[in-house]
């Protein structure tokens, strides 16, 4: 099994910054893509940013130029640097990872989520 543990959420004023981390552990052979999603109250979960094993990234239009995703493959960790935060960024943020655990088994795993609240 694989566990993803997020950290770094909290309360910040508009215009501020936060850095989220997500560490994967367990029976990991290979981690392919990793990503961050968020879900605001009453809304569907949406993709925020993704990064593949080669370091290629993609972002939701709403966060381009403000958020940066990165990963440390040696630590099986993905990060999300969030700058110029807005109240509309308030949500529970989840990380996910596409992981091969055995030669025949490959699944997407999710973290438990971390709350980010941006006050105006």
Précis, in short:
The chain is mainly β and 120 residues long. Helices cover 0% and strands 59% of the residues.
Tell me what you see in this structure.
It is a single chain. The strands form 2 sheets. Strands 2, 4, 5, 6, 9, 10 and 11 form a 7-stranded mixed sheet that branches. A 4-stranded antiparallel sheet has the order 1-3-8-7, with no helix packed on it. Strand 4 and strand 5 form a beta hairpin. By secondary structure, the chain is mainly beta. It contains no helices and 11 strands. The mean pLDDT is 97. It is elongated.
The topology string of helices and strands comes to EEEEEEEEEEE
Derived structural class: mainly beta
Strand content: over 45%
Number of strand segments = 11
Judging from the principal axes of the Cα atoms, what is the shape? elongated
Can you give the mean pLDDT? 97
The proportion of residues forming helix, as a percent range, comes to under 10%
What profile does the largest beta sheet have? 7 strands, mixed
Distance between the termini: 40 Å
Low-confidence stretches: none
Gyration radius (Cα, Å) is 14 Å
Number of helices: 0
């Amino acid at each position: 099994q694989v566990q993803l543990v997020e950290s770094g959420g909290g309360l910040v004023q508009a215009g501020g910054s936060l850095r989220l981390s997500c560490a994967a552990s367990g029976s990991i052979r290979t981690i392919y893509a990793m990503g961050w999603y968020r879900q605001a109250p009453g809304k569907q979960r949406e993709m925020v940013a993704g990064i593949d094993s080669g370091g290629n990234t993609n972002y939701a239009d709403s966060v381009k130029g403000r958020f940066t995703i990165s990963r440390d493959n040696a630590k099986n960790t993905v990060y999300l640097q969030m700058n110029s935060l807005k109240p509309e960024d308030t949500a529970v943020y989840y990380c996910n990872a596409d992981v091969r655990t055995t030669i025949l088994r490959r699944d997407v795993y999710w973290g438990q989520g971390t709350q980010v609240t941006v006050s105006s």
